[in-house]
Design a protein that fits this description.
- The complex is a heterodimer of chains A (529) and B (298).
- Chain A is mainly α.
- Chain A folds into two domains: 261 residues, no CATH class; 247 residues, no CATH class.
- Helix content of chain A is 75%, strand content 0%.
- Chain A contains 25 helices and no strands.
- The longest helix of chain A has 37 residues.
- Chain B is of the alpha/beta class.
- Helix content of chain B is 32%, strand content 31%.
- Chain B has nine helices and 13 strands.
- A six-stranded mixed β-sheet of chain B has the order 5-6-7-3-8-9, with helices on both faces.
- In chain B, a hairpin with a 2-residue loop joins strand 11 and strand 12.
- In chain B, 43% of the residues are buried.
- Classes of the chains: A mainly alpha (529), B alpha/beta (298).
- Chains A and B meet through helix 15 and helix 19 of A and helix 2, strand 5 and helix 3 of B.
């Protein structure tokens, strides 16, 4: 088949380019579920205690909303359930890898270089999809082997299958997205929206405690979770999702084989021949380049806070059926305390996302530099600090807008569903804003790197992933307090419901200012380009 | 005459690579100065030092008498720059980029902008990602030429232009010279420098090897001649300044020092010329010769 000529070579090229980073995250993410299981085992050595813990979790609709339903009160099922967030991170990593090796290559002009050699038109896509499917399979097998060591049984393999098919599915979605748009950035947005959308559907479906909610079934993530590892496995679900993934891959293959190079689905339209008034300063340029992304983030934050905020107080049907569960529910604090707990989780997750937004803006400054677009700007009467300030404003100010949206929309919907808007709105808004210093510190580390060690700015993403894992799994993995303290998000007061303390907020902010200043100073002194 | 650019003994290294190794450059007010050298000789690095984007490790450089590193912003009001590899923002149109750069520099001539866009046959409504290399270069050129800057720093500005556009470019540069603007033009094409430059500096491996007017550097150049002759090429091979002489039937091929080109051609004409092609020396050949002769002397 001439269409596939060169696929093997391209696959090898991709493996060569990713030889360090890919094995690193794939192995790390694949082995986490095993350590989650190990920690559960250590925390609840008695199966009866474990079952009790599982039931208390099931009783809380907010928790099943976030992590999905617990299908059976046993160790394996509980571990698979608690590892759901890892699966989403892995799926994101797989899909970004696909875009990196397809549309990004094309946008950078390297696809053209390769296209002139003996390489079939869709070969690059096929190589990227093979890489994605292969990586997903390896992650699935490793995760299954790891989990089987702590919780033996067919369930481990079912969990591996769930893990692998979710990764493969979103890898195929990424392959398709890469065919539709001209820019890799837009393709990444499509994948992010697809992942976020399926998470939201599943969360909204699972939050009312009904395992068979339609919303959860139509979400790819929710669908895959219903393989039910350790709880009467439904293997066919894995097969169906894999078939859909392959179908998406074939669709992308068809598009890749028939379209022009550099083309997307939408033909480029001519734009204005003259610049508008706003495009006359470094800040105006930064706004023009980042406004689309900013609006995208704000819409995303509004949707997630609106949907999850209104789900926070939903009492699960399971409570009505089981007096035992209802009693446990009351003992945990009842609807108010659990609703607050849910909002704490919602705000902490959105805070990580807002930090990602800030890092994205900060990294963008570096992209401007490496692509050579900064050079002509600095050759005009624009000073380095003035240029840098535009990006710092977006990196630190963007998350402020986002957390305002989370606070306002989350407060309105939470207050609306509990019938107390005037009471809840200020509480939730305050809680959202309290997480800002931790976000700033995370972003400020990247700003400092940009000034002092610009080659390392991408390490900001690794750092953010580490903070996310510490926050989500640190307690489950029983990490010691000093390890948890490494994440600035550990120091954010747990609002609403918890105690407010100003001290950590003040020093987080001061540290952010210091790091930001270091970044500015470093950028003034170093070589550009 | 006042010097716009003065650099002496510039040094800059990137890790183990010595990009500049004691480079000297003097550009006088009102001249078009050719900055010549093969790829990787250090032309772009020198320009980046002059723009204050890189900090030199050693040596000194002044721009309009100021420090290019410390006074970058004030100095940049007086210059316009075209990078060697122009990248544009994918979502901005060419027209927007031209206006943006003009405003960041502190204003530009609107009428001149539109006239230049017409002369270079540029469509200003296209988005950055859809331009070809030559068109991206035109965007940067229009932005620079439409400015009222005293100094134009152009880094291989014609590398993506077709011959038609190259001649438009040459017309523009000649017009700028008339207006008294100073131009630093980096290139690796000797013909371009010959057509435009008052003086040139030739650099290699981060060092200036020759500097002066083209007439002064004429001794370095050698023209390749290939001629179809009516009679045997008697005496041609032994003429002074003739090198690498080859006879293939009635056809002769040789290289000749430009200084003795006139006598050689006269002799050639006396032999009866049926066909003649001549090629100006490429810069690479020139360097090769320059270093060979240097090696022979030492």
């Amino acid at each position: 088949m001439t269409a596939l000529a060169g696929t093997g070579q391209l696959l090898r090229l991709a493996l060569r380019r990713d030889r360090f980073i890919l094995p690193l995250w794939a192995i790390l993410l694949a082995l986490f579920p095993a350590s989650v299981a190990g920690s559960f085992k250590a925390l609840y050595p008695d199966p009866v205690e474990l079952a009790k813990f599982a039931k208390s979790m099931i009783a809380s609709p907010s928790i099943t909303g976030f992590y999905g339903p617990i299908f059976a009160p046993n160790l394996g099922s509980l571990s698979a359930w608690r590892s759901g967030i890892l699966v989403i991170i892995a799926a994101l990593a797989v899909s970004l890898t696909v875009i990196r090796h397809t549309r990004n290559e094309e946008e950078q002009g390297r696809r053209e270089l390769l296209g002139a050699t003996v390489v079939g038109r869709p070969a690059q896509l096929v190589a990227a999809l093979l890489l994605a499917f292969g990586t997903s399979a390896v992650i699935g097998v490793l995760a299954a082997l790891g989990l089987a060591s702590a919780a033996p049984g067919a369930g481990a393999w079912a969990f591996g299958l769930e893990y692998a098919v979710i990764c493969a599915f979103f890898g195929a979605v990424a392959g398709l997205a890469a065919q539709l748009t001209q820019s890799a950035r837009t393709a990444r947005w499509i994948v992010g929206a697809a992942l976020g959308g399926s998470f939201l559907l599943r969360a909204a479906g699972d939050a009312n405690g009904d395992e068979n909610s339609v919303l959860s079934w139509i979400s790819p993530i929710g669908f895959a979770q219903r393989i039910r590892p350790y709880a009467g496995e439904r293997w066919w679900i894995g097969g169906v999702l894999l078939l859909i993934a392959v179908a998406f891959g074939l669709w992308a293959y068809k598009l890749a084989g028939s379209r022009d190079i550099d083309a997307g689905l939408v033909a480029p339209r001519p734009g204005p021949p003259r610049a508008g008034r706003s495009l006359s300063s470094p800040l105006g340029l930064a706004w023009r380049l980042q406004r689309g992304g900013l609006i995208g983030w704000l819409i995303g934050f509004a949707v997630i806070s609106g949907v999850l905020g209104s789900a926070a107080t939903t009492a699960s049907d399971a409570l009505k059926d089981s007096p035992e569960l209802a009693e446990m529910f009351q003992r945990l604090g009842g609807a108010t305390a659990l609703g607050d707990l849910f909002m704490v989780t919602l705000i902490s997750i959105t805070a990580i996302a807002a930090a990602a937004q800030g890092i994205q803006a900060a990294v963008r400054a570096r992209t401007e530099e490496t692509t050579g677009r900064l050079e002509p700007i600095l050759a005009t009467a624009v000073g380095r600090t003035r240029w840098n300030a535009g990006y710092v404003l977006f990196a630190l100010g963007g998350p402020v807008l986002s957390m305002l949206v989370v606070g306002l929309v989350g407060g309105l919907s939470y207050g609306g569903s509990s019938g107390d808007v005037s009471g809840q709105l200020p509480r939730i808004l305050g809680a959202a804003l309290v997480s800002l210093p931790a976000i700033w510190l995370t972003v400020a580390i990247v700003l400092a790197l940009f000034g002092l060690a610009p080659r390392l700015v991408a390490a900001g993403w690794v750092l953010l992933a580490a903070f996310l894992l510490l926050g989500q799994l640190g307690a489950v993995l029983q990490l010691s307090q000093w390890a948890l303290d490494l994440s600035p998000f550990t120091h954010t007061p747990h609002l609403p419901g918890g105690a407010m303390t100003w001290t950590p907020l003040i020093w987080l902010s001061l540290l952010s200012v210091a790091l930001g200043a270091l970044g500015f100073a470093g950028f003034r002194r170093r070589d550009v380009g | 005459m006042e010097n716009i650019i003065e650099a002496s003994g510039l040094r800059k290294s990137f890790g183990p690579t010595q990009a500049l190794d004691g480079l000297d450059l003097v550009v006088r007010r009102g001249e078009v100065h050719g900055f010549l050298g093969p790829n990787g000789a250090g032309k772009s690095t020198t320009i980046r030092v002059l723009l204050g984007l890189l900090k030199a490790d050693g040596g000194s450089a002044t721009l309009f008498g100021g420090d290019p590193w410390k006074d970058a912003v004030t100095l940049h009001k007086r210059l316009a720059y075209v990078p060697g590899d122009v990248t544009l923002w994918p979502s901005l149109t060419g027209g927007e980029v031209i206006d943006l750069l003009a405003r960041l520099r502190g204003g530009g001539d609107k009428g001149k902008r539109d006239e230049l866009i017409q002369r270079f046959e540029l469509d200003p409504r296209k988005k950055g990602r859809t331009y070809s290399k030559g068109n991206r270069q035109k965007v940067a050129l229009v932005a620079a030429l439409a400015s009222d800057a005293e100094l134009l720093i152009l880094d291989e500005p014609t590398s993506g232009l077709d011959p038609l556009m190259e001649s438009v470019f040459q017309d523009c540069i000649n017009a700028e010279r008339q207006n008294g603007r100073t131009v630093l033009l980096s290139s690796h094409i000797l013909a371009e420098a010959e057509a435009l430059c008052d003086r040139v500096s030739i650099i290699r491996a981060g060092k200036t090897v020759e500097t002066g007017t083209l007439a002064e550097l004429r001794h370095l150049t050698r023209t390749s001649i290939s001629a179809d002759l009516a009679s045997p090429p008697d005496g041609l091979a032994t003429m002074p300044g003739v090198h690498d002489f080859v006879v293939e039937g009635s056809r002769v091929k040789f290289q000749v020092d430009t200084a003795v080109l006139d006598e050689t051609l006269r002799h050639l004409a006396s032999l009866g010329v049926r066909g003649l092609t001549s090629q100006p020396p490429t810069l690479e050949e020139l360097f090769l010769r320059h270093y060979q002769s240097e090696g022979a002397q030492s």
